[in-house]
Write a structure and sequence with these properties.
410 residues; single chain; Four Helix Bundle (Hemerythrin (Met), subunit A); globular; 63% helix; Tetracycline Repressor, domain 2
């Protein structure tokens, strides 16, 4: 039977860090019986092999490996090997807890991105600017632009933003199957956020927004939130007498009423009657603002359905784009946008201040020209091109809302 003789290094020398010279007289033999019979032929025996590691500058290891066959003695055969060491840099990522922390941070980041998409950020940014623009209609003099003014604006922005989270979630929940065709990039349609999570967050934000408005105590703010909720629940929820999305006229009226009446008028009344404690009046600049938003919001309502024709037709959603064709509806949208810029231009040039006339006049001419040029370059047969134009007009609205208050301040 074969026996394997292993010589182990001196443990004391290994611990002390010195050179490891192992004497042959101190070798401890460990015998491991073979679990299989020896099949070495008598005329061919494997030579006895001994591996010696050369001594290095700092640490020397003499490790003898000896193999002897049964009943035979052979000459030692020494082979020299030079060992090379490689230094592996230590990294915190090698630790399990570091990987776990990174996984948590990655999940938080992914959820934050999905939630950001769920809230329709382009509409929220425009909503904030719209409330700010409408609040300036309550300003009689520059001294009114005070910390009290910005606190009132912040009250309206925060409460309406929370309710917008709710109505956006309701809309995407109700249109989940349609969005898998029309907007598969949305977090609910793509599965990034579950319907249950959407319901929990939406209900939480609705309660929080209503509670804040109640604590603030502003009646215009409260009825503005209630109307906002009612219009978009009626637009989205598929119950008898609701789901106004299926009727193109009612669907357009939801967008029109929200951006023309609810946001500007409730924000103005909140500032005028609650923040500044002044009697109710409607300045001329507010009338121009409402007229502009009426035309522009109708254009948005019609344009919104142009890239969604495929999914809407499959699920029986009747829209003007399906009834009259994408090209004709798109032309109507562009005309409504240009008419809105014409109203804004007139509001600016009627200002008694010369510099405001110049800024608003030139500004609206430039914006109207850019929209016209962009509309001419939009390919209606390409869904991505139409979607790009749709997001573009939201950006244009944000720029317009920055110019509108100048008419009041002049």
């Amino acid at each position: 039977m074969e026996s394997l003789h292993l010589s182990s290094p001196n443990v004391a020398s290994l611990i002390n860090g010195g050179n490891l010279w192992l004497s042959i007289h101190s070798i401890k033999n460990i015998y491991y019986p073979s679990s299989y019979p020896t099949k070495i032929s008598q005329h061919r025996r494997k030579p006895q092999t001994e591996y010696n590691y050369l001594r290095f500058r700092q640490t020397t290891l003499n490790h003898r490996y000896k193999c002897t066959g049964e009943g035979s003695t052979y000459k030692d055969r020494n082979e020299e090997f030079v060992a090379k060491s490689t230094t592996i840099p230590y990294s915190d990522s090698d630790q399990p807890h570091a990987s776990y922390d990174k996984s948590i941070l990655h999940n938080i980041k992914e959820f934050s991105n999905a939630f950001f998409k769920l809230t329709s950020p382009y509409a929220l940014a425009t909503l904030s600017l719209g409330i700010l623009s409408a609040s300036f209609h309550a300003v009689d003099k520059l001294t009114d632009v005070s910390p009290l003014f910005f606190i009132g604006v912040l009250q309206a922005v925060i409460t309406q933003t929370f309710v917008s989270f709710f109505v956006t979630g309701v809309n995407q929940m109700a249109d989940l199957d349609i969005d898998k065709i029309n907007k598969p990039y949305l977090p609910l349609a793509s599965g990034q956020i579950s319907p249950r999570t959407s319901v929990i967050f939406g209900a939480s934000f609705l309660i929080l927004g209503m509670w804040l408005a109640w604590v603030i105590g502003s009646s215009p703010l409260i009825w503005g939130l209630v109307l906002h909720c009612f219009l978009w629940i009626a637009y989205s929820v598929n119950v008898p007498l609701l789901r106004w999305k299926r009727n193109p006229f009612l669907a357009a009226m939801c967008t029109f009423a929200t951006w023309t009446i609810v946001f500007p008028i409730s924000s103005f009344l909140h500032m005028q009657t609650f923040v500044f404690k002044r009697p109710l009046i409607f300045p001329r600049s507010l009338i121009f603002d409402v007229t502009f938003m009426g035309l522009y919001s109708l254009g948005i309502a019609l344009c919104k359905d142009i890239p969604d024709v495929e999914g809407d037709a499959k699920f029986g959603i009747d829209t003007f784009a399906i009834r009259f064709g994408q090209k004709r509806v798109f032309q109507i949208c562009v005309c409504l946008f240009e008419m809105a810029f014409g109203v804004a231009f007139l509001a600016g040039v009627k200002s008694p201040s010369l510099w405001i006339k110049i800024i608003t006049g030139v500004g609206h001419i430039i914006i109207a020209s850019v929209v016209w040029y962009r509309a001419k370059s939009t390919n209606l047969s390409s869904k991505s091109s139409v979607l790009s134009f749709y997001f573009f007009i939201w950006k244009v609205l944000s720029a317009e809302l920055l110019l509108m208050p100048l008419a009041r301040l002049g």
